[in-house]
Amino acid sequence: MRINDFFNDMEISENDKIYAQKAIAAKGLEKHISIKEYLLSWREKGYCRYSEVATTYRYDKRIRNVLYKYISYLEEFFRANIQDNYYNKVEQEFWISQLKELLIKYNQNLNDALENLSFSHLLKQMEKLPQEIKDVCISIKSYVNQNIKALIELRNAVMHNKFLVLYKGLKFCYVNGVDSEKNNGLKANIINLANFLPTGAKEQYVLDINDCRKQKNNKGKTRWDLPTQITVMLP
């Protein structure tokens, strides 16, 4: 049985067996097996602790919650800057076709049009704005197109509740702070989002990401046992 595949070579306490049964029923056996296999791929010894599997699941959820918060912030920030600069100047040559269509649909109401513009089209519109507006909103100056593509994919993964530690669909981006400046790992994509955030929000984002690794709210749960290989620490 697959359940035996999960518990084989697993260090687990009697109390954790109860937590494990509940977690597997709620979140799926195959996901738990995938997490275990991923952790084992980093080990020379062929076993891991259930507390590591459970903590990996909780850590991934914390990371997704932080990313959701700041991606939403970024969307609002971009829309607000376009709205504030062009609320009474809606006839612009640099509007992308998708925004022009929405302006027609919503009777030239820029706010309504922007609210219904997808994130990917919003970023495309940001690229088309005059340089003085872009300088306020986008601080990165190199590899902008590739890093925007990576940001869109990260946003989609978060919004569709992908399990990020195991997700293979993240795109390459160019950032400092990883082994290679070009990287498609989770840490690189987390840094990439940070580089799009304005000062103030970026600093708080770094604190929130780093805070995800800490033990908290652990009453009635498996002990916090975060594997080092999945931990993301931002400078």
Task: Characterise this structure.
The chain is mainly alpha-helical. It has one domain (56-222). The chain contains 11 helices and 4 strands; from the N terminus they run αβααβααααααββαα. The protein has a two-stranded parallel sheet with strand order 1-2. Helix 3 crosses helix 4. The N and C termini lie far apart (44 Å). The relative contact order is 0.13. The mean pLDDT is 92.
Tags for this model:
single chain; 11 helices; two-stranded antiparallel ribbon; two-stranded parallel sheet; elongated; mainly alpha
In a few lines, what is going on in this structure?
Helix content is 59%, strand content 3%.
Q: Looking across the biggest beta sheet, what order are the strands in?
A: 1-2
Q: pLDDT under 50 segments (min length 5)?
A: none
Form type: elongated
Radius of gyration: 21 Å
Q: In total, how many beta strands?
A: 4
**Termini, distance in Å?**
44 Å
User: What percent of the residues sit in helical stretches (DSSP H or I)?
Assistant: 55-70%
Q: Strand portion, in percent?
A: under 5%
Largest sheet: 2 strands, parallel
Give me the number of helical elements. Answer: 11
Structural domains: how many: 1
Helices and strands in order:
Layout: H1 2-7, E1 10-11, H2 14-27, H3 29-40, E2 48-49, H4 50-86, H5 97-105, H6 110-115, H7 119-128, H8 131-137, H9 144-159, E3 173-174, E4 182-183, H10 186-196, H11 201-211
Parallel strand pairs: 1-2
Antiparallel strand pairs: 3-4
Helix pairs in contact: 3-4, 4-7, 4-11, 9-10
